[in-house]
Amino acid sequence: MDYKDLYEKTSPxxxxxxxxxxxxxxxxxxxxxQIIDGAIVGxxxxxxxxxxxxxxxxxxxxxxxxADLIGVGSSxxxxxxxxxxxxxxxxxxxxxxxxxxxxxxxILGTILFLSAEYLVRLMGADEEIVAMSxxxxxxxxxxxxxxxxxxxxxxxxxxxxxxxxxxxxxxLLSLISAGLEILFLLVFHFGIxxxxxxxxxxxxxxxxxxxxxxxxxxxxxRFVKPQFxxxxxxxxxTNGAPSFFNNTAGRITSIIVNIFLLRLxxxxxxxxxxxxxxxxxLVLPVLYGLCDSLQxxxxxxxxxxxxSRIWAIERICFSVCGGLSVVxxxxxxxxxxxxxxxxxxxxDTALIEMSVQALSLxxxxxxTRWISMATQSYMSxxxxxxxxxxxSLSLAFIFPNLFLFGLRTLGLNGxxxxxxxxxxxxxxxxxxxxxxxxxxxxxxxxxxASKSSxxxx
Amino acid sequence: xxxxxxxxxEFGSGGRELGKRLAEHLRIAYYDEEIITEIAKKSGLAEExxxxxxxxxxxxxxxxxxxxTLTTTFNPQLELSAKIYAEQNNIIKELASKSDCVMIGRCxxxxxREYNPFKIxxxxxxxxxxxxxRQRTPEKEYLSDTEMESRIRGxxxxxxxxxxxxxxxxxxxxxxxxxxxxxxxxxxKDIVLPIAELFKTIYMISxxx
Lengths: 457, 209
Known about the structure:
The structure holds two protein chains of two kinds. By secondary structure, chain A is mostly helical. Chain A is built from 15 helices and no strands. Chain A has one domain. Chain A is 87% helix and 0% strand. Chain B is an alpha/beta fold. In chain B, 54% of the residues lie in helices and 11% in strands. Chain B has a five-stranded parallel β-sheet with strand order 2-3-1-4-5, sandwiched between helices. In chain B, helix 1 packs across helix 8, helix 2 crosses helix 3 and helix 2 (33-43) packs across helix 4 (76-98). At the A-B interface, helix 1, helix 2, helix 3, helix 6 and helix 9 of A face helix 3, helix 4, helix 6 and helix 7 of B.
């Protein structure tokens, strides 16, 4: 694709459509499986299993984040080495990173396997849930050395130009996992282990498919003898850390929230919160897809100093995100029962009531959530990692935990209000950062007029 | 193999002038902004954008998902930046293979390491760098000394980070250069001749071996 034409000349509205539509679709496809997974577990296995899954999911994601850290972190030095046409060195980094993921996957898997029951009991769950959670988690733990690499190999395929193949694998993963889950739970009547087994088998198959091109030696990256040095590990850590902290900070918050939920309302409350998170999974991918896929276009125009064009694109982005969010809030409020019914059995009135009440407070999140999201994405696109990190950490970790303790007296309602309030305060913070950034840019532009000659010193 | 001089320099140290004068004196080619223009032409990207990537490292990716999804993350900026690094590498090597030349910055000292170039690092104290910048700015000047100083430091930081990011070497560390020269209170034109002589002498010695 000719970037210059697309980023510089195409009209902002058209650019917006061309870039974001595939972004939103691929984001939706890849999260669709999680929704299906939630619905199947909730409807077929019931609310206790649903709560068990929601309790251990953060641990599963933290385990995957390690592979993601290495995958994101190593793709930068690999891309540089490939740019130097040094395929040997690039392959060496690639092979080392893969080995590192397998080894760390094995270590973390072992830890999770051994401590599964203990960890869930520590959160305050009763024995029925402890047993179910451990059963569910142990399948992830056993397959960890072979499946986590999925999150890194995707990056490597793209570096080697196999973008379509990587997208195909992501869709395949959703299809296989969903298919197997239906087969295991509906036809074979497996218990909770059927849910994690289907995901793990799906990942395993996709990992094999993903590795075949590398093993056949047809790509620029091949498997060679790994070689580690301090520089490489440093570079992996610095490049992958932002993504990793983003992932884990949110997950640690989830674990703390779960502990509060168990104390205040037991398994039912955990399930109700799970419903909120799955409902969230219907909305957020759309906003993520919108903002994230605009990043390259914004970054490009910022570098090229086409400030008025950025403004034009961002104006569309902010209005579309804002408009969409209002619609989402309205839909969530109007369709509370149908949304809850996707994940909860019809007879489970206690859970349905609690979930509906939770959703009627939680839905207000979307009124403000897009502001911090679009701002964070913008800051990240123009190379202001500091501001992007501040917003992301406040949103995922600082504010939710402050509200957890601050709203203790409100009981469960305090927990349902946590995310809407976090999102409101984060929006104010984001707006303030955006404003001060705008002021500084103006001053810079003023100085710029006198700076041009400095370039030739 | 062609004789190459690479000049790495602190902003405002007069490195660019030194490189240009050396090239004139030795009657060899001189490449500076030309490299950026060439990258822009070959990659089909805007020149200003190429410059913004080449002058500071901006590759870190902050995904806006806060880890609720299992979606794999991919760095969308990496693709464009990687394209620029690859082009920079190609172009600098291509230019070096054409003829003897002086190259300014852009990690050419590292990229052309096979040529065993004569690598100069030019630095100076802040007051003379400020003075040099003032000499080149027009009458109508909005920047105060402190503003100018922070701008100079900012540009140097970008160069250092970009260099370390791409080469793994520390920018300005003496073991990576053939000659490090402090140009504080020195007129560049006065040192061109001795440096050119030094270059010829060292080149002759190393070729005799």
